[in-house]
């Protein structure tokens, strides 16, 4: 099957610092890939290169076979990539449903569609869609609650709804399980599984290896900006280079502890 997302020999330098070196990656439609590596390995930078926050120094990025390397971030979003961040980026003083509508706004193609999430148009389809997305996620009871009043686990899941709204083909999640308690983590896992069972591909950065094992069929390991391993989670965890990368840094992450 043709790739949904392809990174072909991508490199990134900041000044003289080579942060990503000759990194290649294939994400098939509907596949679930984990991107792991020690702190500072370059995982978030890879996300930033894919979504167009930073231009690449070398290499190509393709989405659905189309070269998007030079496209600005807002045009890449319209190719169906959606992202959540390490830190929650919801608008705390808006309601849950208003936050979901902001996600729709980012993907609106026509100027009148961009106005619609503001609620100025009659028969606001956008609001209905946002409420439906909350219902599908089992979060409808929070629709009118202000985000800053909601528990952390619910806020994380709202981010997921916002990212996935409007039919993303690729969902990119940066440390979605960080800071969640075991119950919240299970709820998030079920939520992500639900979103991706419909054929949305997943690329997830996550330190919590148990979470990655349950969610991802394939794992890619970065260290000092280079790919050092790729394969099924249980294979990768036994890879000597991966063990060295984690244990050699002395980073007592969940991945290292699991891998040991
Ligand atoms: N805008 C920037 N300017 C200069 N250096 C940067 C920039 N962004 C990232 N870096 C550097 O790139 C390297 C990789 O950072 P990145 O945040 O991508 O790592 P990471 O694997 O996501 O780490 P963590 O797991 O701690 O989030 C680090 O050395 C970081 O300091």
UniProtKB/TrEMBL annotation:
GO MF annotation terms: ATP binding; ATP hydrolysis activity; L-isoleucine transmembrane transporter activity; L-phenylalanine transmembrane transporter activity; L-valine transmembrane transporter activity
Gene Ontology cellular-component annotations: plasma membrane
Keyword annotations of the record: ATP-binding, Nucleotide-binding, Transport
Matching PROSITE patterns: ABC_TRANSPORTER_2
ABC transporter domain boundaries: 5-249
GO biological processes: D-alanine transmembrane transport; L-alanine transport; L-isoleucine import across plasma membrane; L-valine import across plasma membrane
Highest taxon of source: Bacteria
Pfam families reported in the protein's UniProt record: ABC_tran, BCA_ABC_TP_C
InterPro entries, alphabetized: AAA+_ATPase, ABC_AA/LPS_Transport, ABC_transporter-like_ATP-bd, BCA_ABC_TP_C, P-loop_NTPase
Official protein name in the record: ABC transporter ATP-binding protein
Species in which this protein is naturally found: Teichococcus wenyumeiae
């Amino acid at each position: 099957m043709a790739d949904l997302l392809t990174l072909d020999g991508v490199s990134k330098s900041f000044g003289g610092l080579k942060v990503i070196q000759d990194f290649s990656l294939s994400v098939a439609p509907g596949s679930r890939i984990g991107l792991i590596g020690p702190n500072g390995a370059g995982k978030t930078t890879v996300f930033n290169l894919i979504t167009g926050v930073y231009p690449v120094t070398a290499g190509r990025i393709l989405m659905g076979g189309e070269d998007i390397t030079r496209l600005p971030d807002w045009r890449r979003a319209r190719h169906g990539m959606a992202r959540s961040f390490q830190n929650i980026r919801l608008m705390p003083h808006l309601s849950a449903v208003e936050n979901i509508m902001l996600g729709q706004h980012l993907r609106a193609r026509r100027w009148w569609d961009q106005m619609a999430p503001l609620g100025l148009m009659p028969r606001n389809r956008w609001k209905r869609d946002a409420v439906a997305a909350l219902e599908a996620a089992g979060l409808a009871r929070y629709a009118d609650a202000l985000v800053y009043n909601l528990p952390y686990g619910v806020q994380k899941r709202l981010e997921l709804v916002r990212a996935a709204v409007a039919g993303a083909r690729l969902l990119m999640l940066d440390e979605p399980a960080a800071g969640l308690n075991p119950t919240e983590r299970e709820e998030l896992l079920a939520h992500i599984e639900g979103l991706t069972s419909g054929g949305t591909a997943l690329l997830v950065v996550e330190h919590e290896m148990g979470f990655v094992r349950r969610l991802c069929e394939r794992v890619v390991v970065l260290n000092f900006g280079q790919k050092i391993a790729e394969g099924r989670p249980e294979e990768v965890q036994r890879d000597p280079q991966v063990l060295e990368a984690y244990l050699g840094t002395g980073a007592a992450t969940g991945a290292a502890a699991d891998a040991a």
